[in-house]
Amino acid sequence: MDNVKQITPDAPPLQELRTYEVYRIRHKLNEGGVLTKDDKKYLGKEINYHSHYENAIYLRGYLFSFADIIHHYMVKVRGKWVRHSGTDKATVRDTMYNSIYITKIIEL
């Protein structure tokens, strides 16, 4: 599978991860599929709030890279600028807390 790297030697076989959302989305992208709004929201939340990587998601010994579709943005919220990542501006707005206070989004 493209864009997947095994980073721990004791990781289970990649086929065992087929039931996970991250695997399903990466597989869909590799096959040329189009992401749904829910897929984009899931990636945005995972990348920004549950991952230690800028463009990837760690799952059971594997690193699933989404660098081909993730963009970085500066978002002005309540007068302060914060960095946020997502597939597009709409997803950034949907996945941010306090999104009603967003006044500007700039792609980096």
Q: Any key phrases for this structure?
A:
single chain, 108 residues, alpha+beta, 2 domains, three-stranded antiparallel β-sheet, 3 helices, 6 strands
How many angstroms does the end-to-end distance come to?
29 Å
Number of strands: 6
Approximate helicity band = 25-40%
Number of helices: 3
CA-based shape: elongated
**Main sheet characteristics:** 3 strands, antiparallel
> What is the overall pLDDT average?
92
**Major sheet strand order:** 1-3-2
Q: Return the string of H and E elements.
A: EHHEEEEHE
| Structural class determined from secondary elements | alpha+beta
**What's the number of structural domains?**
2
Uncertain runs = none
Q: What percent of residues are in strands?
A: 25-35%
Cα radius of gyration in angstroms: 15 Å
Could you explain the architecture of this structure?
A hairpin with a 2-residue loop joins strand 4 and strand 5. The chain has helices at 21-30, 37-49, 89-95, and strands at 4-6, 56-59, 62-65, 71-77, 80-86, 102-107. It is elongated. It has 108 residues and is of the alpha+beta class. It folds into two domains: 4-65, no CATH class; 71-107, no CATH class. Helix 2 packs across helix 3. The protein is built from three helices and six strands, in the order βααββββαβ. The strands form two sheets. The chain has a three-stranded antiparallel β-sheet, covered by helices on one side.
